[in-house]
Amino acid sequence: MSFQGHEEALREWRDALSGTRMHHGWILAGKKGLGKAGFAMAAARELVAEPGIPQPPGTHPDIILLTNLPATADDEAKKAEGKPYQLKRSIGIAQIREMQQRLITRPTLGSRRVIIIDPADDLEKPAANALLKSLEEPPAGSFFLLISHRPGRLLATIRSRCRMLRFPALPDEQVDAVLRQHAPEANAATRAAAIAAAAGSPGAALDFVAQDLGPLHGLMQRIAQAGDPGFTLRGELAEAIGQRADRARVLASLELARAVLATEMRQAPKGRLPRIVDAHGEINRLASQAPTYNYDAALLVMEIGTLLASAAVDREPAYG
């Protein structure tokens, strides 16, 4: 496998794979959109492959993928029909229990089996505690690849039983190359805005283009820099995100706001820095909670605008 920008992670994985004793638990850590899921699947295929045993090109019986399930029965049906559907906010204990039942049996093709959890950040607490038991006493030939966008959200006991494989943010030119290949419809201005907002994540840059976040980016920059004393810009922002925006668009907007504030932190004068840091911290909190909390989308959008405005420089009142 070849993963541009993640050569060090690949080297570390291959060194471990060629060693005498492969560690049973790995955390693939890095911001969302860096290609960790693709790396995990390719790494799992390398791990389960054995000489003389043909490997299926599609779904592999010895690679178990746990991820967020469709939210409802209707979403299950939409998935089966190839239509857009909503996901559950978390990975539940029933999924972990089902996986553990499979670990009682022998692998199908060879002597190894891999469990990928994507993302492990979304494990409910009971599910995380149940997973910990498997990490503490892994069945022979069982290996775990936990994809994590925010490793700090994982239980410390899970982190302590896994080896960390880090995926750094990519340089702008590599993100641009991904956009040119996978989003050729994006013009130069859109690509530049996507690259700035993505902060090294090709996946985030592609989401930026797919979600048409260009207008939001400009509005967020204006609010963060000039404020919004009359609430006009915040109203425009809410309208641009959409009164009935789906969860994916709201989450993408949160990530965009975080990127805008991160850019402001790098560019703003020191006197303005504390308020930007405070706003960035609150956006981080919302971004970590929003995937699993039952927030009202409209209120969350207004909160994004309010936090951006709080980072702006104070404006002197006009006196006539």
Automatic annotation (TrEMBL):
<dbReference type="GO" id="GO:0009360">
    <property type="term" value="C:DNA polymerase III complex"/>
</dbReference>
<protein>
    <submittedName>
        <fullName>DNA polymerase III subunit delta</fullName>
    </submittedName>
</protein>
<dbReference type="InterPro" id="IPR027417">
    <property type="entry name" value="P-loop_NTPase"/>
</dbReference>
<dbReference type="Pfam" id="PF13177">
    <property type="entry name" value="DNA_pol3_delta2"/>
</dbReference>
<dbReference type="InterPro" id="IPR050238">
    <property type="entry name" value="DNA_Rep/Repair_Clamp_Loader"/>
</dbReference>
<dbReference type="GO" id="GO:0006261">
    <property type="term" value="P:DNA-templated DNA replication"/>
</dbReference>
